Here is the input.
Amino acid sequence: MSNTVYLDLCCIKRPFDDETVERTRREAEAVSVIMDAAKAGTLDLVRSPAHDFENDRNSREDRRLATRLWLEAAAISVQSSPAIRKRALSLTALGFGTLDASHLAYAEAAGARWFVTTDDQLLKLAKRHSDQLQLEVVLPNQFLLEREEITHE
Here is the structure.
């Protein structure tokens, strides 16, 4: 089974959010564990042009640079293709935003098993269309729980 994970940018940037909020703190901790596992080589993190496009739009240089360093931990880099653009358009037709659809299409093209997000709307829409997605969309905490179950089977 694939050990490949795609983190959308809101997930990667979770450690910058207000950690006095319980959910935010738990998710930031989970993202940190995921990034550590990627650096250790126990899971394969995916980087795509959608990450770079979205990150380059960040007006905070410190966060933009830190995020770029985190993205460099990715073991898999997927490049744009006509098939990915076509898939992104079909996901947009299901109601996903343009950028979310691009992230999902890149994740699928990279063979990611999981797409990790902190975006509740994206998660809800992905659950509604799970039969049309080639991966599982989960919150960071859910990813850690599922991965733990898999490694203990």
Observations:
- The helical segments are 9-12, 22-40, 49-56, 61-71, 82-93, 98-109, 120-128, 140-151.
